[in-house]
Design brief:
This protein has about 350 residues and is of the alpha/beta class. Helices cover about 30% and strands about 25% of the residues. It contains eight helices and 14 strands. A hairpin with a 2-residue loop joins strand 1 and strand 2. Helix 1 crosses helix 7 and helix 2 packs across helix 3. The protein is globular.
């Protein structure tokens, strides 16, 4: 496996990106490296645990991946805002265009097999596929993405935040670390020794821009030539599962056949996918099956033989492996067409 960091120009800023390429990556018939583009969530960056694990998963599948920081996040230059979903869609387009025209630095020409977005990055990914339809890859993976952007999280803003918003039209949102460590003594928000991670201005204009962003445009995605995989966790307290089912419902109505859209609820998974190792194993299985769906028709019979494979997890105790047990069943819901 090789890892390369580089910058991509986008809208008068430089986007920081990290490519992870397996030792023997999957390639197209003309030799290009198959690659996934990963887009992070609100106030996050490419060093988020979820992306580290996603890149490890793709590496095990022999698929290259490129994670990047949106404008004003992580190591990228420029500024960001609470409701700039379409701007982030343009950032994704800049990364995809760079890979299609320039390739992966130190690795060679690339073919963008798919994109994966988490949380806000998933919504921005959907808007990218809508706005830049000519660049839409064969597979879109929506990981815990929100559909109803006008619906706020009740616990997100404090009473003081809401008061400042009414009186001043903006407030400074402070994000704190939540896990104490012996080295930094971090405590949860509101305590005397809480560790400040980031400050972020929220304005009425930002909130209005977010609320007016219409995600029903997913009905217009080029579903005749791409597949969509929607995934969320049963314990996600940030984005309710009815958001992912609304994506599912609208896209199924527009898709030429039901195989184009797949939606899964993973038992025990929270919004940031950082609790149990088994969740990543399940995600790996889902992603592998979705990737197989993008294969050419003449390869489907061979692929069908693999569909019966299941993941088993063995618990290690005292340096020895116990009896393997099947991973938890993943929920599927069939949505009737209207």
């Amino acid at each position: 496996m090789s890892q390369t960091e580089f910058f991509v120009h986008s809208r008068n800023a430089q986007l920081f990106a990290r490519a992870v390429v397996p030792n023997m990556p999957r390639r197209t018939r003309d030799g290009r490296i198959a690659v996934f583009v990963l887009s992070h969530g609100l106030l996050d960056n490419i060093d988020a645990p979820v992306f580290r694990h996603v890149q490890e998963t793709f590496n095990k599948l022999s698929i290259a991946s490129v994670a990047f920081d949106f404008h004003g996040n992580g190591c990228s230059t420029g500024t960001t805002s609470y409701g700039n979903y379409y701007n982030e869609a343009d950032d994704i387009a800049s990364i995809v265009k760079h890979l299609q025209t320039t390739g992966i630095p130190n690795s060679g020409p690339a073919f963008v097999l798919g994109t994966l977005g988490h949380s806000k990055g998933a919504s921005s990914m959907m808007l990218f596929a809508f706005k830049h339809m000519h660049m839409c890859p064969p597979l879109l993976i929506n990981l815990s993405g929100r559909f109803w952007l006008a619906r706020e999280i009740t616990m997100r803003w404090t009473k003081e935040n809401q008061r400042q918003l009414r009186e001043s039209g903006k407030f400074l949102w402070r994000r704190y670390g939540t896990k104490p460590t012996k080295s930094n003594g971090t405590k949860i928000e509101g305590t005397a020794n809480a560790k400040l991670v980031r400050e972020y201005w929220i304005s009425l204009d930002d909130m209005a821009e977010r609320s007016c962003t219409d995600m029903s445009v997913v009905q217009a995605l080029p579903l005749h030539r791409c597949f969509v995989l929607n995934i969320t966790g049963s314990k996600d307290q940030i984005v309710p599962d009815d958001d992912v089912w609304e994506y599912d419902r609208l896209m199924r109505m527009a898709a030429p056949n039901e195989d184009r859209v797949v939606t899964r609820i993973v038992p025990g998974a929270a919004h940031f996918w950082n609790k149990q190792r088994e969740l990543y194993l399940q995600y790996s299985s889902i992603a592998a099956r979705a990737l197989r769906r993008t294969a050419k028709p003449e390869l489907q019979s061979e692929i069908a033989k693999r569909e019966g494979m299941a993941i088993k997890v063995a618990k290690w105790e005292a340096g020895k492996s116990g009896m393997p047990a099947p991973a938890s069943v993943i929920e599927t819901r069939t949505v009737a067409e209207n």
